[in-house]
User: Fold this.
Amino acid sequence: DGGITQSPKYLFRKEGQNVTLSCEQNLNHDAMYWYRQDPGQGLRLIYYSQIVNDFQKGDIAEGYSVSREKKESFPLTVTSAQKNPTAFYLCASSPTNTLNQPQHFGDGTRLSIL
Amino acid sequence: DQQVKQNSPSLSVQEGRISILNCDYTNSMFDYFLWYKKYPAEGPTFLISISSIKDKNEDGRFTVFLNKSAKHLSLHIVPSQPGDSAVYFCAAILNTGGFKTIFGAGTRLFVKA
Assistant:
């Protein structure tokens, strides 16, 4: 059954630590995205990748880093430079980054600071 | 600056009646609009979309209306069912060299049996 898998579902981080959120898809999609959701706000784009070995910053990329070494994987690292990392993180993919292709989402990872 | 606004955080509707979820946007350059539905502990799923060159798109119980002059989008669900209870996100796509999707904050719909 094709889909997007995010792991873990819940993640705790100590101050000053980097942490990596996993996102894997078996939909054979070229484009992948990372969003952050805070209470009362819409999803905000952190990074996106239109193809393997390529990625672009979204609206709130500071304090985050990504890699796209394989088509099916797009991990997000939350670095210690991210001052307010507690949030719900959603990964998504689409066949390509074009106008009329909806995104498919994983079930999210909730990150909390200890 | 929120370019896509859903001003009603929640909406409660009786089963069998119409649910109307509203969305306003500020950027006239948006090319495409979508609605996503999200259940608790799950990611959003695509529901219905509309191109900026159209004013209506219908899919079963779901209809999306676009009023470009008012920069207003609405989702109608008729008849509403208890399984429709979820958070609904309005989204708009902008061509910035790549295509960027901008989401509203969501409206939580409660359909009472």
